[in-house]
UniProtKB/TrEMBL annotation:
This is DUF2182 domain-containing protein. The lineage of its organism: Bacteria, Pseudomonadati, Pseudomonadota, Betaproteobacteria, Burkholderiales. It comes from the Bacteria. InterPro entries: PpoB2-like. Keywords: Membrane, Transmembrane, Transmembrane helix.
Length: 271
C-alpha cells in the first residue's frame, strides 16, 4: 500500500510533464502554421534574379524597428518551439530523472524542468535576434544593389552545399553527441535553480551549434516555408534521437550536398 501511495504523485507528475509538452508543441505548431499562412506569396517582394524576398525582413509602414524586431523574434521563438520540442522533450525527461534520483521532491521537478527549458530557448531567442539583424542588413543590400540580388539564388545553393558538408565534420559530431548525451552521465544532478539554468543554456548552445547547418538551410530556402520547416525538424529530430545519430547526420549531409549541387546546376542552367 505504501508503495502505491508514494508512486501515485510521481505518476501524476510524469503524466503532467508529457501532457504539458504535447500541449506546448500543438500550440506552437498551430501558431506557426497560422503565421506562415498569413505570410503568403502576396507578402513576398520580386527581386532581380527571378526570386522573391520574404517581407519578414522588411519593416511595415508605420512600424518601428523595435516592434518589427520584437515581432520577428516572437514568431521565431514560436517556430523554434515547434521544431525543437520533439527532440528537446526526451532530454528534459532525462534531466528530470537525474534530478529525481537525488531524492528531489515531485513539487520541485516541474519548476526546475521549466527553468531548464527556458534556458534552452533563451539561446534560440538570442540567435533569433542575431538572425534578424543579419537578415535586415542583407535585405537592405539586396534592395539597393541589384547585382547583389542577382547572386542570391546561386548563393543559396552554395549555403545548402556547405551546410551538407558541415554534417560530416568532427565539429558537428562533437556538438551532436553533446545534444544526445544523457544529463548527469548516469549520476544524479542537484535539485537547484542554478544547475537547471546551466543545463538548459549548455544544451541550447550545443544544439544551436549542432543545428547551424540545418538552420542555415531553413533560412535560405524560406524561413516561412512549412515544407522546409517540416524537413528540417524531421532531420534534427532523427539525428538526435535515432540510434547511431552520427551516421544519420552524415546520411542527411549526403542528401543535402546532392540537393545543393542540383540547386546550383539548375540555377546555372537557367542562366
Amino acid at each position: 500500500m505504501s508503495t502505491l501511495i508514494v508512486s501515485r504523485p510521481a505518476y501524476r507528475s510524469q503524466r503532467a510533464f508529457f501532457v504539458v509538452s504535447a500541449l506546448l508543441f500543438a500550440a506552437s505548431a498551430a501558431a506557426t502554421i497560422v503565421w506562415c499562412a498569413s505570410m503568403s506569396a502576396a507578402n513576398r517582394m520580386p527581386m532581380p534574379g527571378g526570386w522573391e524576398m520574404s517581407m519578414a525582413w522588411v519593416r511595415m509602414c508605420g512600424q518601428t524597428w523595435t516592434s518589427a524586431a520584437a515581432s520577428f523574434i516572437g514568431m521565431w521563438d514560436v517556430m523554434m518551439a515547434a521544431m525543437m520540442l520533439p527532440s528537446l522533450v526526451p532530454m528534459l525527461w532525462r534531466y528530470r530523472r537525474a534530478v529525481a534520483a537525488g531524492c528531489a521532491s515531485e513539487t520541485r521537478l516541474a519548476p526546475l524542468t521549466a527553468l531548464a527549458g527556458i534556458g534552452y530557448f533563451c539561446v534560440w531567442t538570442a540567435l533569433g535576434a542575431a538572425v534578424y539583424a543579419a537578415g535586415v542588413a542583407l535585405a537592405e543590400l539586396e534592395m539597393q544593389a541589384p547585382v547583389a540580388a542577382r547572386i542570391v539564388p546561386v548563393s543559396a545553393g552554395a549555403v545548402v552545399l556547405i551546410a551538407g558538408a558541415l554534417q560530416f565534420t568532427e565539429w558537428k559530431a562533437r556538438h551532436l553527441a553533446s545534444c544526445r548525451e544523457a544529463p548527469g552521465h548516469g549520476r544524479t544532478l542537484p535539485a537547484d535553480a542554478a544547475t537547471a539554468w546551466r543545463f538548459g543554456l549548455r544544451l541550447g548552445l550545443h544544439c544551436s551549434y549542432s543545428c547551424a547547418g540545418l538552420t542555415a538551410i531553413l533560412l535560405v530556402i524560406g524561413v516561412m516555408d512549412l515544407r522546409a520547416m517540416t524537413m528540417v525538424m524531421a532531420a534534427i529530430t532523427v539525428e538526435r534521437l535515432a540510434p547511431g545519430g552520427e551516421h544519420v547526420a552524415r546520411g542527411i549531409g549526403g542528401v543535402t550536398v546532392a540537393a545543393g549541387l542540383l540547386l546550383i546546376m539548375r540555377i546555372v542552367a537557367l542562366g
